[in-house]
Amino acid sequence: MTLKASIIADRDFVIAPLDRRVFGTFVEHMGRCVYGGIYEPGHPTADEHGFRGDVLALTKELGVTIVRYPGGNFLSGYDWEDGVGPKDQRPVKLDLAWFTTETNQFGTNEFITWCRKAEVEPMFAVNLGTRGPDEARHFLEYCNHPGGTYYSELRKSHGYEQPHDIKFWCLGNEMDGPWQIGHKTADEYGRLAHETAKALRSFDKSLELVVCGSSNAKMPTYPEWEATVLDHTYNEVDYISLHMYFDNHANDTANYLAMSEKLDDYIMSVAGVIDYIKAKKRSTKQVYISFDEWNVWYHSKEQDKKILEGNDGWPSAPPLLEDIYNFEDVLQVGLILNTFIRRSNVVKIACLAQLVNVIAPIMTVPNGPAWRQTTYYPFLFACVYGRGKALDLKVASPTYKSDVAGDVAYADIAGVHDEACGHVTFFAVNRHANETAELDIGLEGFGSASLVDHQVMTHADLRAVNSAEKPDNVVPKPGSGAAVREGRLSLTLPPYSYQMIRIKI
Ligand code: AHR
Q: Looking at the predicted structure, is the pLDDT value of residue 490 above 90?
């Protein structure tokens, strides 16, 4: 059985230039993301800083653009001063967010050094849970001021002569969440974020600042939270952050794969709130969305209970949130990335949470190899080929009824036009369980075209996973049967499949 979808890709129908920072990730001090993830002194591939070379290599292979740090819930109890200076003098402290012990052997300067090696841009966050504008301004001075002041000289005395020049700063994390240390009402947080932003901007007007939006669209305070917080901060910030995690606890694939439509609703509703406040303020400035935590997160919930209920005696860097992703999650991650590409006019930053070991595309074995999860691949294709202008595709596809999002198209597709290298790339997902999707894509205004690359991910078992022992169980394979003829690209998507196809124009 086949289903047919027709699509028009017109060179002149453009959504927006795709901001490459939508291919970011997140490194939090939790579980084995830092310790045993990016940092494992003594590992066979570790460099002089203790950074795992295999994880650095995979980060570069992915082509990640920006990395958020140091949390997450961890942030709201973090004292940045603990993580700088001589390592043997750094305090060991309890991390009350994740019921673990933090050794502080890795901190701000190590992260910046790692970012330079990984060739990614750092995105820092200041603690607005237990702290405020005072610490934030000292931290900024420590990081970015050239010298001659207390905090800049302190940095120099720690061996970092040059300022780090960190441009992106998040004003706290998930401050709407009752689980957050220092949780606040929207008014309390809005005032605090405004005052903190003002202080940071006094130091450098060119900083890009991110204020906290909702932790997810199910929060009782959403979307009033966004309206109140932006009312306080609109003229001082550049982005509002959103987070969303996806799960298939219900074991219902059709609904699971419809959740990216909920994501789309969430983005568009918050874009509406931004515009409302912009109008209310009579502002000419545009605030955008930083979707700085997203991923599938549910496979590890049972196994983490003991630690997360505080019943495991404060371990240091224990395995936490080590979701092992399956083939079904490949489809989900592909759908989420397509949504960000299609909403590139409002979403300018997005961070896959997290980079390594903790709900991550990269996994490591202590003192052993690093390996790629199933979801590594759709993220890789989007990071590497998601360049240029996001195309406003006109898609006609058969649909199905879902409980979570109404009518949902079986064929989901996003496209980008990279004028610099003369390529058009499409990322497509077939949500149908047993029908092949035949895609007929009219290429308008591109001239003659030829196939460059075609990669397909499909698997007989939705629950198939990769592991350290079998790292290549679920991997992309070269596709077949695609053809470009007389200005049309025809493409066949097997049931439940993800594909990336590039054409030269
Ligand atoms: O990424 C894991 C956690 O999820 C983060 O610490 C928090 O911000 C979110 O709730």
A: yes
